[in-house]
Design goal:
Mean pLDDT: 95
Shape: globular
Number of strands: 7
Low-confidence stretches: none
Strand content: 15-25%
CATH class: Alpha Beta
Structural class: alpha/beta
Distance between the termini: 46 Å
Number of domains: 1
CATH topology: Rossmann fold
Order of helices and strands: EHEHEHEHEHEHHHE
CATH architecture: 3-Layer(aba) Sandwich
Strand order of the largest sheet: 3-2-1-4-5-6-7
Number of helices: 8
CATH superfamily: NAD(P)-binding Rossmann-like Domain
Length: about 260
């Protein structure tokens, strides 16, 4: 039997009750990690945790609004009390809405920025003392192709994800002396429940046309990348911005007009 790549590790996954976060949670649990699902939707998170427990794994739920620094600090304290330590943090909680830039309200800007940028900062800051003391840890931020290339009707989201890319690099530099790895995955459009709810088939077809490999991402594509960056296989990788996007961000045009 293959060795579990996260055996005896404790991982916090924000937004772990649905979509990408759920996929990462299930992958990490299958690889031997004890999981703390930090999610604002406790019911979704509990359903995932219950299934992991039934399958012989270990998972707890901590209802957490990652945009509230006091609540984040309390959640991390609770996780330490229940699971004893922290080895991995995956900042996956996120949200977006599509609007023309002139139609964004202050509330839109605040909500999107706080969830996609402030939340990862609050969570990272809260786990730092434990990781620094251990002189070991992995922080994986889930960014976006919109953190590398601009897309229409995504001003706040693009700004937040570009900020997350910058935060990843600076944290990687500052925390390297403690043997803490900080990396960022930037997916293209992935088939999650949120994407299915928020986009049209025409949008998804257009995204497929832009991607050289000709398909949208799957949750498994992202979960496997997060597993790699959270494992010992990536011990000498830090500050990396990893596009997992079928080639989207490496090209200006996916297909030649001569095809």
């Amino acid at each position: 039997m293959a060795e579990c790549r996260l055996q005896n590790k404790v991982a916090i996954i924000t937004g772990g009750g649905r979509g990408l976060g759920e996929g990462i949670t299930r992958e990490f649990a299958a690889q031997g990690a004890a999981i703390a699902i930090a999610d604002i939707n406790k019911n979704n998170a509990q359903a995932v945790a219950d299934q992991i427990t039934q399958d012989g794994g270990k998972a707890i739920v901590v209802a957490t609004d990652v945009t509230d620094p006091a609540q984040v600090a309390s959640s991390v304290t609770h996780i330490l009390d229940k699971l004893g330590t922290i080895d991995v943090l995956v900042n996956c909680a996120g949200w977006n809405t599509f609007k023309p830039v002139q139609d964004y309200t202050l509330d839109d800007w605040e909500k999107i920025r706080s969830l996609n940028l402030d939340g990862p900062w609050y969570m990272s800051k809260a786990v730092m003392p434990t990781l620094i003391k251990k002189r070991y840890g992995k922080i994986v931020n889930i960014g976006s192709g919109s953190g590398i290339l601009a897309q229409p009707r995504m001003a706040a989201y693009g700004a937040a994800k570009h900020g997350l890319v910058g935060m990843t690099k600076t944290l990687a530099v500052d925390l390297a002396q403690y043997q803490i790895n900080v990396n960022c995955i930037c997916p293209a459009t992935v088939l999650t429940p949120l994407v299915m709810e928020a986009t049209t088939q025409a949008f998804r077809d257009f995204q497929c046309e832009r991607i050289p490999m000709g398909r949208l991402g799957t949750v498994a594509d992202i979960a496997k990348a997060a597993l790699f960056l959270s494992s010992a296989d990536a011990d000498w990788i830090t500050g990396t911005i990893m596009p997992v996007d079928g080639g989207l961000t490496c090209c200006a045009v996916a297909h030649s007009i001569m095809d």
